[in-house]
Amino acid sequence: MDGQVLLDAIELIKGFLAGFEPDRYPGVDAAELVRRFTTIERLGAAGKTLAAGRVQRSGAWRTSGDRSPEAWLAAETGTSKSESVGVLTTASRIDGLDATGAAMREGRLSAQQTAAVASAAAVDPDSEQTLLDTADRQSLQALRDEARAVRQAARGEAGLADRERIHRTRYLRHWTSDDGAFEGRFRLTPDHGAIVLAALQTHRPSSCEDGRDAAEADALVAVARAASAGGNADSDVPPAVINVRVDYEALRRGYTEPGETCEIEGIGPVPVATVQAAADDAILRAILTDGHRVIDECTAGRTITTKMRRAVKERDRTCAVPGCDETQGLQTHHLHDVRLGGPTKLTNLARVCPHHHDQITYQHAQLTGAHPHWHWQPPPGKESIFDLPPTTDPPAETERETPPRPSPRHPDLPPSPGPPPKPPPIRRRRPE
Ligand SMILES: [Zn+2]
Q1: Helical H segments across 204-305, by residue range
Q2: Distance (Å, rounded) from C-alpha 136 to C-alpha 129?
Q3: Can you say how many angstroms the Cα of residue 192 is from the centroid of all Cα atoms in its chain?
Q4: Which pLDDT score, from 0 to 100, does residue 156 have?
Q5: What is the Cα–Cα distance from 92 to 410, expressed in whole angstroms?
Q6: Distance 276 CA to ligand 1 centre (A)
Q7: What pairs with residue 186 in β-bridges?
Q8: DSSP string covering 148-168, please?
Q9: DSSP 86
Q10: What is the pTM of this model?
C-alpha cells in the first residue's frame, strides 16, 4: 500500500496545528485558513467514503467482530451509526458517477453535498451535471431540494406508494413536559401538511417579538380558536389556500418527468396527484412553469362557492359512498377529474369521508353515478364491497404505533437503485 504520502501529509498538518495560534492571524488570513482546512476536511471525507466502500465490499469489517459495516465504521470513526449509514450509502451510489467522483477527489464537495448529489444522480444519471452545478453555486438546502425533486420525478408512481406509507404511519401525539408545557409532535403526508401550513399562514400574526417559532405557535392556537368558534370544521369557513409551482406539461400529463417541477410551497416536491387532490378542498394558487420560466398563474377553478358548498352539504349529509354513514369531517370530492381550471357544478360534487376520499385519490377507487344513485368501486384488491372507514374508537394502547424514529437509512431511496419506474398511466375518474 502506497500510503506513505498520506502519512507524510498528516504529519505536516499535525506540525502546523501544533504551533497554530489563531489569534496571531489577521481576520482575513484566518478566513483563508478556514477555506484551506475545509478543503482538507472535504478531501478527508472523500477518501474516507471511497475507502469505507471498499471495506464494505471486501468484507474486511468482519475481522473486527462488529455486527455490520455501519457498526464497524461508527466505532472506527467515533461517529453515530446513522452517519456511518450515510457514508456507506453514498459510497455505494457514487460507483458509476464519474463527475461526482472527480469533484469529490478535488475537494469541491462537502460530505453532505456529495450525499445529496449521489442520492439523486444514482436514480437519474442525466441530472448529475446540473446537480454538481447547483452544489457549486447554491446553498446546501437548495441542492437538497433539487435532489429531492429529481428523485421524486424518477420515482413517478412510486411516489404515491410513499405517500400511502407515510399516511399509514401518521400520528399526532402530545404530552405535558416536566415544566408543565404542552408539547407534541406529529407526522403527516405532504398534502395534509400543506393544508396545515396554509391554515397556520392565515392565522399567523404579522409580527411577534419572540421570533418566528413563537409566531408559528401563536398561529396554531389561533387556528384552534377559530375551529372551536366555528363549531363544525366543515362549516362555511373559506378553504385553505395552497401555493404550488408546477410544470404545465406535468400537470396535464399527471406526473413529472425528470427536470420538471411539482412542489407545494413550504413543503417541497410532491407527486402531481397530490396537487390535484389538494385542489379538491383547498384553493390552489398555481404558478405554471415551463422548465424554469413562469408561463402563467392561476387560481384553481375547482373553488367551490359558498352557496354551492351549502347546497352540497345539504344534499350529502353522510358520506356518498353507499353503505358508509360517516358524517364527520366530510370532504367535497369532484367526480370528474377536472384538473385545474375545470368546471365546478353541483352535479359534479359529492361529499365523502376522509377515508374514502383517500381511496379515490390514491388507491384508484371510483365513485360514479349521481345523487341519490351512487356507485362505488373499491380500490383494486380490496375484497369488501363496503370498505368502511376504521372505527372512530381509539385503538388499544398496545396496538398504537410508536412514532417512528428518524430512519438511520436514507429514508427516501432504497439502498440499491433499480431502473426508474415506468411513468404511471394518466388516471381519469369518469362517470359511467
Ligand atoms: Zn365513507
Answers
A1: 212-230, 248-253, 272-278
A2: 11
A3: 11
A4: 67
A5: 13
A6: 20
A7: 172
A8: HHHHHHHHTTHHHHHHHHHHH
A9: H
A10: 0.48
Q: CA nearest 354: which of 192, 235, 227, 229?
A: 192
Rounded-to-integer distance, Cα 114 and Cα 52, Å: 15
322 contacts 386 by C-beta, under 8 angstroms: yes
Cα(269) to ligand 1 centroid in Å equals 29
Per-residue cell: 358 = 383517500
Orientation of helix 81-93 relative to helix 27-58, angle to 10°? 80
Q: 67, 69, 68: which is closest to 55 by C-alpha?
A: 69
Tens digit of each residue's pLDDT (9 = 90 or more) over 54-111? 999 888 998 888 888 999 999 999 999 889 999 999 999 998 899 999 999 999 999 9
**Spatial distance between the Cα atoms of 80 and 408, rounded to a whole number of angstroms:** 9
Are β-strands 331-334 and 349-352 bridged in parallel, bridged antiparallel, or unpaired? antiparallel
Cα(386) to centroid(ligand 1), Å: 9
Query: How far is CA 204 from each of CA 46, 186, 212, 216, 224, rounded to the nearest angstrom?
Result: 44, 20, 10, 6, 12
- Arithmetic mean of pLDDT over the chain: 79
Residues contacting residue 283 through CB under 8 Å, at least 6 positions apart: 238, 239, 240, 241, 242, 299, 300, 303
CA of 165 to the centre of ligand 1 (A): 21
| CA of 367 relative to ligand 1 center, distance in Å | 11
Neighbouring C-beta atoms of residue 171, cutoff 10 Å: 14
432: how many CB neighbours lie within 10 A of its CB?
7
Task: Report pLDDT for 379.
Answer: 84
> How far, CA to CA in Å, does 161 sit from each of 150, 190, 228, 258, 424?
17, 13, 34, 18, 12
If you measure from the C-alpha of residue 377 to the centroid of ligand 1, how many angstroms do you get, rounded to a whole number?
A: 12
Inter-residue contact 351 to 330 (CB < 8 Å): yes
Q: Are strands 241-247 and 283-290 parallel, antiparallel or unpaired?
A: parallel
CA pair distance 193, 215, nearest whole angstrom: 18
CA 391 to ligand 1 centroid distance, Å = 11
Q: What amino acid occupies position 164?
A: E
Q: Are 419 and 154 in contact (CB under 8 A)?
A: no
